[in-house]
Amino acid sequence: MNTPDPCKEKLANPDEVMHRHLLARMRWRGWLKVVTLTMAVDQLLIAVFTFAARSLDPGIGEMPTLIFSCITCMLVSNWLVSDARAAWVSAKSSGYIGTAIDAVKGESVVIAARCRRRWLVVLHIELNPQLVMQR
């Protein structure tokens, strides 16, 4: 089979390469936010869980804390991503998301300042940049 090797393929359009890199950077920034916030909430909840568990049973092992930590990370990250998706849908249907045309940048997405869950909408855009960066 003669399938082209993307690493050896000549880049015909440098704008397309820059576009792909921008999408990757946006996605990376979004997932970094999710991981950072998940770890912060996880540490807080582990401290509370450990205090409560040791108050009830001072001889408790580390396995329950580890299991609690894993489940907490999974639930918090899933909650963030699904809440960001719900914020996007709500903002889109309420008219808080629009487009603006700039002479230099071209068309861009604008999120109204009065949008209550603006940071979650931004997070959803970062996790799914293809929604606003369509060519």
**Stretches with pLDDT under 50, minimum 5 residues:** none
Rg, alpha carbons: 21 Å
Shape: elongated
Major sheet characteristics: 2 strands, antiparallel
Number of domains: 1
Rounded mean pLDDT is 85
Counted beta strands: 2
**Largest sheet: spatial strand order:** 1-2
- What percent of residues adopt helix (DSSP H or I)? 55-70%
Order of helices and strands: HHEEH
Which structural class do the helices and strands define? Answer: mainly alpha
- Cα-to-Cα separation, first versus last residue: 31 Å
Which percent band covers the strand fraction?
5-15%
Helical stretch tally? 3
Keywords: Membrane, Transmembrane, Transmembrane helix
What features would you describe in this structure?
The chain crosses the membrane at residues 30-53, 65-82. Keywords: Membrane, Transmembrane, Transmembrane helix. The protein is mainly alpha-helical. Helix content is 63%, strand content 9%. The protein has one domain. Strands 1-2 form a two-stranded antiparallel ribbon. The relative contact order is 0.13.
Task: Give a quick rundown of the structure.
The chain crosses the membrane at residues 30-53, 65-82. The protein is mainly alpha-helical and 135 residues long.
Question: Can you give keywords for this protein?
Answer:
135 residues, mainly alpha, 3 helices, elongated
Set out the fold topology.
Layout: H1 14-56, H2 63-94, E1 97-102, E2 106-111, H3 118-127
Antiparallel strand pairs: 1-2
